[in-house]
Amino acid sequence: MRKALKKVLVTGGAGFIGSHLVDGLMTQNYEVTVLDNLSSGNLNNLKQWLHNQNFRFIKGDLKNPQSLEHATQYADLVFHFAANPEVRVGETDPRVHFEQNLLTTFNLLEAVRKKESAQVIVFASTSTVYGEATILPTPEDYGPSIPISTYGASKQGAEALTTAYAHTFDMRALILRFANIVGPRATIGVILDFIRKLQKDSSRLEILGDGTQKKSYLYVDDCIDAIFCAVNRFLKGKEKVEIYNVGSEDQVTVKRIAQIVTEEMGITPPKLIFTGGVDGGRGWKGDVKNMHLSVEKLLKTGWKPVYNSEEAVRVTGRKLLKLQ
């Protein structure tokens, strides 16, 4: 990335993807400030940098404007990765996604506008903004986007706010729409869920939905490489706003993930219990049953994933098991 943008703020930097991003930034000798309320992030994810002179950690909440005023003064470039990523919570408490994803993005953008500090904002969005796309793989210009979860809606709203601020207040915005990112430090997700269930009872495995849900999975190291490739390409251009899909080039079913996890655990294949799901076999309300992003635009930056979806699941399962 351009060294002119030396001071970097990462919101949610103690979380899963955010902490891996911090590792990459620190390795490249950027001055990094992390703002995180540690509600789902873990300071242990950042322990190797806590005493580094180029690193600063601020425990603060994006719902609190004072925390943001303090953090944004250290930023030329902002990676906004703080969010509540749990899609299922929207079915029982939709306010969570409004407050923790949409309102917090507004607060951050306002802080940046008032400080006139950051030149570029990189926003971590999601494949769920597309809803049930009729074109697979789904390109960035697909539309209309019709989210089917409050999580997807909150991210779509946050995208709209970010692009509007970029055009209105002389900022630039890079939006990254992530597929399912997997790897160590993850605290939620189907791989970890299967491991925990099988550790309690290896004879049976309950699978939400009908098991045919089919999605792209990208290993977190490949994700971080993709972020840097997209940012580098964006900074070389002059566009106010750019959007990149970030995912693998293929898909894997939930049933196959169960088989891979079982193999990595070295146990007798359990009896698979499918809940049947909702709305035609979904795992839960708002679950996009078939997701496959087009990454042609990202590939043109020179990025290429090391692992396909099955390999990403297998490596993740293996590493998560070592941490148990």
Characteristic terms for this protein:
globular; alpha/beta; single chain; 13 strands; seven-stranded parallel β-sheet; 2 domains; Rossmann fold; UDP-galactose 4-epimerase, domain 1
Give an overview in words:
The protein has 324 residues and is of the alpha/beta class. The protein folds into two domains: 204 residues, Rossmann fold, CATH 3.40.50; 90 residues, UDP-galactose 4-epimerase, domain 1. Helix content is 38%, strand content 18%. The chain has ten helices and 13 strands. The strands form four sheets. A seven-stranded parallel beta sheet has the order 3-2-1-4-5-6-11, with helices on both faces. Strands 7-10 form a two-stranded parallel sheet. It has a two-stranded parallel ribbon with strand order 8-13. α6 packs across α8. The longest helix is centred in the N-terminal third of the chain and has 21 residues. The protein is globular and about 60 Å long. The two termini are 36 Å apart.
The portion of residues forming beta strands comes to 15-25%
CATH superfamily caption of the largest domain: NAD(P)-binding Rossmann-like Domain
Count of distinct structural domains: 2
Poorly predicted parts: none
Distance between the termini: 36 Å
- The level of helicity is 25-40%
Based on helices, strands and strand pairing, what is the structural class? alpha/beta
Rough outline: globular
Which sheet architecture does the biggest sheet show?
Answer: 7 strands, parallel
Mean pLDDT: 94
Write the layout of secondary structure elements.
Layout: E1 7-11, H1 16-27, E2 31-36, E3 55-59, H2 65-72, E4 77-80, H3 89-92, H4 95-115, E5 120-126, H5 150-168, E6 172-178, E7 180-182, H6 190-200, E8 204-207, E9 214-215, E10 217-219, H7 220-236, E11 241-246, E12 252-253, H8 254-265, E13 271-274, H9 296-299, H10 309-322
Parallel strand pairs: 1-2, 1-4, 2-3, 4-5, 5-6, 6-11, 7-10, 8-13
Antiparallel strand pairs: 9-12
